[in-house]
Design brief:
It is a single chain. This protein is mainly beta. It has one domain. The chain is about 10% helix and about 45% strand. It is built from one helix and ten strands; from the N terminus they run αββββββββββ. Strands 5-6-7-8-9-10 form a six-stranded antiparallel sheet, with no helix packed on it. It has a four-stranded antiparallel sheet with strand order 1-2-3-4, with no helix packed on it. A hairpin with a 2-residue loop joins strand 2 and strand 3. The protein starts with 6 loop residues before the first helix and ends in a 6-residue tail after the last strand.
């Protein structure tokens, strides 16, 4: 049997395999501005095969006085290259536990992926991640559609 493939078919197959490879990692991201822009930030979660591989989060709070510099919190955790954290899967959620100087206080972030990406910061410590005057929110939801703002849930005394 003599099978000949046309060059056009080979190019189409190569392009399709490249597109499939490019989509192997799914990135979910959003930005937010709250309290008339006094609190702003962004979140990005990188997924591979539906599992969280990387979490990035930034929040900036206005300075306490007009024209004063702001305060920020930052998280940059990676499943592969982060010796400071332990990653585990439990009940459809990824739990990221950071090593801490205070072992009696948990420092855990829970990321649940579904139609939306939900990030639970309620058991995470702001100390070590945030400057004075800033704190992590209780939770954040990355919407399904790109370009939409994050839904941010602050602690009750910040709302």
């Amino acid at each position: 049997m003599n099978l000949r493939l046309s060059p056009g078919l080979l190019i189409a197959a190569a392009l399709a395999s490249g597109i499939a490879a490019a989509r192997a990692d799914d990135i979910r991201a959003c930005e937010f501005k709250l309290k008339s822009g006094c609190i702003a930030g962004d979140a990005k979660v990188t997924l591979a095969d539906g599992k969280v591989q990387h979490l990035e989060f930034d929040i900036v709070w206005c300075g306490l006085k007009k024209d004063a510099p702001g305060y920020s919190c930052m998280i940059d955790a990676s499943r592969k290259d982060d010796p400071e954290s332990k990653w585990s899967e439990n009940g459809g959620a990824t739990t990221i536990t950071a090593s801490t100087d205070t072992p009696t206080q948990p420092d855990t972030i829970k990321v649940t992926v579904g139609r939306f990406v939900s990030i639970d910061f309620s058991r995470a410590q702001s100390g070590g991640r945030c400057g004075a005057g800033a704190e992590l929110p209780r939770a954040l939801v990355i919407p399904e559609k790109a370009g939409r703002p994050c839904r941010v849930f602050l602690s009750p005394d910040e709302q």
